[in-house]
Design a protein that fits this description.
Keywords: Ligase
GO biological process, one term: long-chain fatty acid import into cell
InterPro entries: ANL_N_sf
Helix content: 10-25%
Radius of gyration: 22 Å
Family: Belongs to the ATP-dependent AMP-binding enzyme family.
Distance between the termini: 63 Å
CATH topology of the domain at 57-183: Luciferase, domain 3
GO molecular function, one term: long-chain fatty acid transmembrane transporter activity
Length: 290
Amino acid sequence: MSLCLLLQIIQYIGEICRYLLNQPVRESETQHCVRLAVGNGLRPTIWEDFTKRFRIKQIGEFYGATECNCSIANLDGKVGACGFNSRLLPNVYPIRLVKVNEDTMELIRDSRGLCVPCRPGEPGLLVGQINQQDPLRRFDGYVNESATHKKIAYNVLQKGDQAYLSGDVLVMDELGYMYFRDRSGDTFRWRGENVSTTEVEGMLSHILNQTDVAELQKVLPSYARPIFLRLSPQVDTTGTFKIQKTRLQREGFDPHQTSDRLYFLDAKLGKYVPLDECLYARICSGKVAL
């Protein structure tokens, strides 16, 4: 049996698909028999570019974690979706998107003390009702009891129930397809609006070869456009090529902390300008408005 016939299904994880797209085009990259790519972490902004370039007929994107009881899968190739759950029969698989305070990620509750389900198009925290008698819905927790306690909420869908808190914000459409929005803590408020860092990162990656601020104006609303840019020759990544942000967050846009090139979005000029120590001091003192 030929190798081509054997390799009909491949698996991807994390940012591997984006890394492959960034490689030079090779004639051999379409000489395969792959019909299905299964995994998680394929960004919606590169989904169609990836399938067209490498001629992958179907994507099987899924969402889940080893310990979670609310895993979902997109089995019919809906572009950008990480899973599906029936809106007609939601209790067959009792997972929900519930409203949370965007600043604190605390669950928002109604007058009865229950969580408030999200409507289609509203971002919410993914939770899964716990049933210790059902292997698909049980939650065994962690060795650390404190960590286990933080992952469980009570009186979520009905009085007396328990639910696993995924820590991730998703959005469901009218049909029941779910789309990953952000990890909790990666969404913040700016100028009265909620900004998804994952969405901004995806848009920037998509137009990375564009240098005109006008391109950002086309794809991002004013409140979501980055005020500061940092150009690094390389970044720290995890084993699945996801960016490790802790050090970047700590260093911020301080030119004293890094030798990377830094830029500031000058609203008056309508373009990014180099950020040096002098401009940094003026921003910190309030002499330059953000």
